[in-house]
Write a structure and sequence with these properties.
The chain has 427 residues and is mostly helical. The protein has 22 helices and no strands. α8 packs antiparallel against α19. The chain starts with a helix and ends in a 6-residue tail after the last helix.
Length: 427
């Protein structure tokens, strides 16, 4: 296996896409482990992994998010947030977090959130006296609310991998997302008090009622999606299709969509969806080899030998996922590690819905952690702040988010209460 790792590293250093690196390493691993005879059935194994109904929702939600980003909705949500919390000390920092909460219910993407707010809110914060580094740091930190609050591309991916109800995962993400937002608001309030951050004057505040009415088309979209799924009117895939139609309607209402915007939204959707499905194909080849070599059983035996109980194993697994999230894309990390490590946790009594929220939240922290944090890279590129200076500035937020992660691990009710209330999770 050392040869396989070395081969993969050489391919990665050559600049080859990660999906081809994983696929090439998988084929070599089949040959070196004397499993080459199973390569003949590999296409069938790959097709079985992508022939999952829940995965149909993923490109539709990506398209809905792209349409939202280009439809003028970001400015509407920022204005609404300003009318709610702008008068507080460090008001625009609070606006940043609250906008991410609203935006999360629409796009479900941390990278999209960080890119949109870096372009719109960071310059406004800079103009009102915030340091560029702090404005960039809180933008990146709050962006990971997006993949936790439904609809979430990551949760759809996890649900397809583990055959877990996407509806239950969507409901389970609401409270953790709000807990994360509350924690970030507290950190911002402390930073505002210490740094004497400015607040909006009364005359600068947008009128709440008019702003709320204008924002209703945007706010109604997550309610339609989640309500339709929870009350059984729509499957997640049907809700994703409705979200696309609603996004088009909202874009027309806010006059932000033109032919160019529609083309770019479609192009980005094809690129992102294609890259995710290619990664699934590559990782499924490696996963099949793991099953042949009985790697999950070997991990289970090792856990028994080390005497790790359910809590100890959960902590060890989360440490592995934290490290993986720092260097791997979330779909890659999920596809590589979940099939190997999650079955042992489930055998020890973990709830699959709770486990999905914990692991997805865990990997999202990697988006704002060096050396390859995706949201850090996006915010740094858009705002022009030095990457490593941004990484230092975001450290307090990362520590708080790790604290929220341990809270979720130790109190499963935070993620399971809502799904249980609607009969979508075990008692």
């Amino acid at each position: 296996m050392i040869w396989v790792a070395g081969f993969a590293l050489i391919l990665l250093m050559s600049g080859l896409a990660i999906a081809y690196v994983i696929g090439g390493a998988a084929v070599l691993a089949y040959l070196l482990t004397d499993n080459s005879r199973y390569l003949a059935i590999l296409p069938q194994q790959i097709f079985s992994k992508i022939d999952v109904f829940a995965l149909m929702a993923m490109p539709l939600f990506i398209l809905a998010g792209e349409l939202m980003n280009r439809g003028g909705i970001t400015k509407v949500l920022i204005t609404l947030s300003m009318s709610l919390v702008g008068r507080l000390r460090g008001g625009l920092g609070h606006v940043n977090v609250l906008t991410s909460v609203f935006f999360a219910g629409i796009s479900g993407s941390a990278v999209a959130d960080s890119a949109a707010l870096s372009n719109t809110l960071v310059p406004e914060m800079r103009a009102r006296g915030y340091s560029l580094t702090y404005a960039s740091a809180i933008t990146a930190a709050s962006s990971i609310i997006g993949p936790i609050v439904p609809p979430s591309i990551i949760l759809i991916f996890y649900g397809a991998l583990m055959q877990t109800s996407v509806s239950a995962l969507f409901l389970a993400g609401i409270v953790p997302g709000l807990v994360l937002a509350a924690a970030l608001l507290v950190v911002n309030a402390i930073a505002a008090a210490v740094g004497n951050h400015p607040r909006l004057e009364r005359e600068e505040m947008p009128p709440f009622f008019a702003t709320f009415v204008n924002a209703l088309p945007a706010l109604s979209i997550p309610l339609i999606i989640l309500g339709g799924i929870v009350f059984g009117w729509m499957t997640p895939t049907e809700a994703a299709a409705v979200a696309v139609v609603a996004a088009l309607g909202a874009g027309w209402f806010y006059s932000g969509l033109d032919r160019t915007a529609l083309w770019e939204a479609g192009r980005r959707t094809v690129m992102l969806s294609g890259s995710i499905f290619v990664i699934i194909c590559a990782v499924s080849a490696l996963g099949h080899l793991g099953a042949l070599e009985r790697i999950p059983e070997a991990i289970s035996d090792l856990v028994a030998e080390l005497g790790l109980g359910p809590v100890g194993y959960m902590l060890a697994m989360n440490a592995i996922f934290l490290l993986a999230g720092m260097v791997l894309d979330i779909p890659v990390a999920l596809a590589l590690l979940v099939p190997l490590l999650a079955p042992v946790a489930l055998a020890q009594g973990a709830d699959p819905v709770h486990l999905g929220i914990v692991l997805s939240f865990n990997l999202c922290i990697g988006l704002i952690s060096p050396p390859l944090g995706g949201c850090l890279l996006v915010v740094s590129a858009v705002t022009g702040v030095n990457y490593w200076r941004l990484a230092r500035a975001i450290l307090p937020f990362v520590l708080v988010e790790i604290g929220v992660l341990f809270l979720l691990i130790n109190f499963p009710a935070l993620s399971l209460t809502l799904p249980r209330a609607f009969g979508l999770a075990g008692g």
